[in-house]
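Interim report to the steering committee. The following record documents the input for Adenosylcobinamide hydrolase (227 residues).
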Amino acid sequence: MTDVGETVEAAPFDYACAPPLLIARFPAPRRTLGWSMLHPGFATVRDVVWLEVRNSDLGLDVDAHAFLRARLAQAGQGDALAFMTSRDIRRHHFRQSRVEGIEAACLTTVGLSNGERVGARKQPPALAGTINTLVHVSQRLSDGALVEALSIAVQARTAAILDTRPASAEKPVTGTGTDCLVIAAPCNGTPLCCAGLHTAVGEAIGGAVYEATSAGAREWNAEFGIG
């Protein structure tokens, strides 16, 4: 998704899918903010990893965080920020958006078997297909702008889920009970102090996240005959 007359450059990070891992690598460490199984909150990382798991991997007596750390260590990714999902990670989606020279890129996997509606709570399934999202912006953000950018990405993800649910759904889900989302930005340069809906960076984030999540949700709906 681009502004008229603007061309999106090459992806700001490399990513490769070799199940059970989907790995995104930045050209240099990035400042991140979000919630993830490993490195939640503010962090500085070079790699972001999705681990695909099955029912046989996680029993009731398994410590999920310890399991994830062990699997990443085996793969040489012990320092990575990490997500875990039962969604087929080959079905990942990448979209970019450029607005007034600021670029945003989104890489996500979308599973909705663990769907929830905000303000309500259900017993989660034994293994959750969830929405795990990485968003990268091309310019450094202040801590406050990172928080604001995270809120924009959540809005875009939720709007995409709502817009792709069947019209017959009386109360469509707004996400899943185990969603994870992380914003990443360069560590150097003059930081932007705002990233709201009225800003170029906010528009770019919203566009990239909405398009990537919509593609993933439509694919999920088609795969499981929802619609």
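The domain at 14-166+173-223 is CATH 3.60.70 (L-amino peptidase D-ALA esterase/amidase). The committee is asked to note this result when reviewing the revised timeline.
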